[in-house]
Sequence to fold (899 residues):
Amino acid sequence: MADHAHSPSDAGHEGHDAHPHVNYWRVYWLLVGLLCVSVIGPMFGVKVVTIITAFGVAAYKAYLVAKNFMHVNLEKPFVTYLLLTVVVFMLLFFAGTAPDVMKREGTRWTKPEWVRAHEEALAHPPAPVTHGEHAPAAH
Amino acid sequence: MAHAPVAHEAGHGGHHAEPGFWSKYVFSTDHKMIAMQYMFTGMALALVGGFMAYAFRMQNAFPGINVPGFGMVSPNEYNALVTNHGTIMIFWVAMPVLVAAFGNFLIPLMLGCDDMVFPRINRLSYQVFLLSAVVLIASLFVHGGGFAGAWTAYPPLSAKPQYSLTPLGSSLWVVAVALEFVAFLLGGINFVTTAMNSRAPGMKMYDIPMVVWMIVIASILFMASVGPLIAGAVMLFMDQNIGTAFFDPDRGGDPILWQHLFWFFGHPEVYVVLLPATGIVAEIITVFSRKKLFAYKTVLYTVFGTGVLSFTVWAHHQFIAGIDPRMANVFTITTLLISVPIAEMMFVYVATLYGGSITLSTPMLWALSFIATFLIGGVTGIFLGASGADIFLHDTYFVLAHFHYTFFPIAIIGTYAGVTFWYPKMFGRMLNETLGKIHFWGTFLGFNGIFIPLFLTGVAGDHRRIWSYGLFPEQSTQLLVDLRVFATCSMLFMLAFQPIFIFNFFWSLRRGEKAGPNPWRANTLEWQAPSPPPHGNFAELPRVYRGPYEYSHPDRKEDYWPQNAPA
Amino acid sequence: MSAATRPIANTRSAAGVPTGRLAVWWVVASEVVIFGGLLGSYLMHRLAHDQWSVQAANTNTWIGAFNTLVLLSSSLAAVLGHQAALRGDGPKAARQLYLTMLGGATFVVVKAFEWTHEIHEGFTITSNTFWSFYYTAAGLHALHVIGGVIIMAFVAAEAKKNLELHRVELIGIYWHFVDIVWIFLFPLLYIAK
Fold:
């Protein structure tokens, strides 16, 4: 009972030990570096750059954490398939829902409040608001 | 909880003294006891849900009647009755009985192990479930009454107190449903992990009995689909109580988002309850036709495919909600597609029966009636899956009859089939066959008598969730009134037979013929354990040598070949 | 639960993955769908409401980045704890878990200050649907952080005594998942303005 780390139920662990361990510190500094990139990205003011640095970096960071910290690549393949499948389900959910939720108007309907807010924002280009009381009524 | 005490043998090193009442019946971690807890709770709530149906059907057929045992049904009460009937039957009857009770009881036994892998989480899942049931019942008695916004809880009706008229009731309803989801997530992880890891030595993937596969896949479907609705329930609760505007179009929200969040789960949910029922039927028809399951692997891969496909059809519930018509095209195609694998499964079952040596025992009658009635349900679904036809049929009684022809076989017929089949194993006694058959025919004929007329009234334009058709002259023709009255009288007829089952169940606990371990002469491992199985299930954990459906094997004298019998 | 009363079912491993780890992966999978649904809903709204950038400008990117750093560091501690547990060094694994917990606690405290400031500025959960999503998503995440810290306390307590060391990896996997959710929340709420 004392040393539970090597019970039969840890059969899968032998696979872990057999592989050379990644240098976790190196991965960590890489993650921190990527964090800096994603913070600096928006400072260029170019929307595309911001998107790439923000979400591209996020995706890569997630991959690094999954691979090196969670050891997904050392697990049985089924784990990778499971995680990819649920991510695909989320994309599926987005694809099926966005055509309705993401739009202000459809073929035979509008969301009047959304349309009004959008037109108001177009008419009065927004300046960053610093106090909630002065936030425009637009949502 | 009246049932035969579980024999307490010294299974796998049992050096514990005989447990007291509380640790044996209330705080048990034994999967069989937890199964019983789920089963009895589910069946008790079935009485509640059934009573609600009785009340609103009486009002529907005889508008303004003082319903015996309930009183006058006001319009708001009518809505609350239909809402909670649906909610209770799906979440507090079908799921706990089919998934949790049968899953808990059967999975460790059929896999040849001594318990679930996480017995204490198992117990926790029941406790959370019981709490959810208490919260739901409480919601019926608070000021304002029970939630009355339909089991689908579309906002703004469900979110704004000036529409729901019961802010406390609707909040409690949301909390109850959310707790139930948590309970089943906990339970599902137990089922899946146990099935993946704890099989008996020698049991390969294709040696697993179909009902175990079905329950496990159902748990996976549940776990993969409930997430967005949990998010949605949190958002709805906040809209109800904090004043956020997630679903309030006046303030930047979108009620259609709720619909998508709900149905993304809601559709896989019906397969979550369907699969265990079809699994139970598979076990019964093989045993009572002494034939192996036709095309086991095909059924298995079909179920995998159905599971994946079930995530792609959800918006067929929203065809006339104003969704993008191009998406309606997509969802029509996927919905019609999904009917193919399910139909194919039914044909496989028929092929299993073909040429078999059939015994029309009570479980077999239930299993056969499942196939027949579910086929009707499935076929009528095709009309609804076509978005064009759905424009007319949506929210009519046609939809209602369709889903009762699927849900009733699943939740009621499936339950009776499973209970009559496994009762000897659970309690060590046989149920009375004659009473069982009388109960079957009364229920089966009554059920059809309720819902066939409702198909007709639906096509004739009867809208769902209407308190009184007296308000609508075109729906008050004599024919339609007669059909509704016939349906309600069939319901009374059907309800009159249920006490027979209840009597049979409790009477046989003490006076039924004692059952041996394997009264049906079946192959699967649960029949190789004592009836009822002791704590630890098997005196010696079995080893498996073959698949579960080796019936009528030519080389054998006996017409069955248990999985753990050496070659 | 001592090994003497643990079911035999628990010691089998037909899928080739130890039971505890298998269960944690299923937990992670179901959590992906919960957060996926919430974040997907947010994204749809955000893409449709360009004018939310007005509100979003008021999230503090530096605090968000600091919290990201805190969580990344805590993930590092968690995996170093796993490394120690593999070597059988329970006390060291426990120390690393305590560091992880410290990271989690720091995260929650910083968030408390951040939210207090934002609420004082008038950005409450009901002031705008952007803020509704902001508080709900970050709040749900923070609840998972707190839950993780609590469970970690139990695991660390046992690990210190060299008991149940395999659980260090299990809580680590859960923690890394919570970290990954934040890795996506951070750009969604703080950068993509």
User: Anything to note?
Assistant: Chain C has one domain: 18-191. The radius of gyration of chain C is 19 Å. Chain C touches chain B through 39 residues (CB under 8 Å). Residues 129-160 of chain C form the longest helix (32 residues).
